[in-house]
Amino acid sequence: MNENVEQTLLITDVIDHASAIQKRLDAKGEDEEKKWMIANATESTVIEFLKIASVQMLHVLDAIGELEPVNGVTIAKHFSIPRGSVSKLTQRLVKFEVIRAESLSTNKKEVLFSLTPYGKQVYKLHQQLHHRLDSNLRSFLQRYNLNQIRFLSELLRDVSQISWVESETVEKEKENVSDQEISELFVNKDKSDLQQINEIVKLLQNLDAKKLDKIKDLIRIIFVD
Predict the structure, then answer these.
(1) Which residues are registered as beta bridge partners of 70?
(2) What is the Rg, in whole angstroms, of the alpha carbon atoms belonging to the chain?
(3) How far is CA 51 from CA 39, 54, 67, 74, 91, in A?
(4) Can you tell me whether residue 99 is helix, strand or coil?
(5) Which helix (H) or strand (E) holds 93?
(6) Distance in angstroms (rounded) separating the CA atoms of residues 216 and 142
(7) Helix, coil or strand: residue 114
(8) 3-state secondary structure of 108
(9) Partners of 115 in the beta sheet?
(10) pLDDT by residue (tens digit) across 134-180?
């Protein structure tokens, strides 16, 4: 098969996998994580909260758990969430009794947030979930050799810097791995392995820069350094 034709077919295959992964994440990703947390929760109040909790609510609760006592401005900066959204989210978290809000005696306008006992349980569950996801990712990546991990690290860097909305020509840097080198990296992989590689690539395309940096650092620690 002509290399240009094969490249076009593979790019189409990669894009199709990206779309399938995005649909799976939208439909099941959040539900799977919630189900795991609910299954491992012991308090009925915690379970009821998890059933209605949004991803942003859990992110804000995580920020409070990491930084408590903390004000809304710091939370907004920590996760790049608009201050108005933080205000609404913290109000809901207070309503569900997973955080408490206390004004400073010296400045009544300054409100600090901290976790309640129920909030600490949710925070602990969420941390356990992230640990489980990290552990599973580590186990999954063990199947690839050092050169493949290096390529994946390079890919993550490029994906984190490119816009998929703007129309532009992406010039490869001299140190980037060539198409021929990439083909050689995966020459011994069977069809099922190549399919999983494609799925990884497409999954990575849907992550934001902050998450890509975390994964890149994780890969570098485990396989490169």
Answers:
(1) 113
(2) 21
(3) 11, 9, 25, 27, 17
(4) strand
(5) helix 83-95
(6) 15
(7) strand
(8) strand
(9) 99
(10) 899 889 888 989 898 888 888 778 877 777 666 444 444 444 444 44
Q: Report pTM.
A: 0.62
219 in Cβ contact with 153 (< 8 Å): yes
Question: Which H/E stretch holds residue 200?
Answer: helix 191-205
What tens digit of pLDDT does each residue of 167-197 get?
444 444 444 444 445 455 555 556 666 666 7
Q: Of 183, 180, 156, 161, which Cα lies nearest the Cα of 171?
A: 161
Inter-axis angle of helices 30-40 and 44-52, nearest 10: 170
Query: How many CB atoms sit inside 10 A of residue 46's CB?
Result: 25
Q: Which tokens in the block code for residue 10?
A: 């593979």
Torsion of CA 81, 87, 88, 93, to 10 degrees: 100
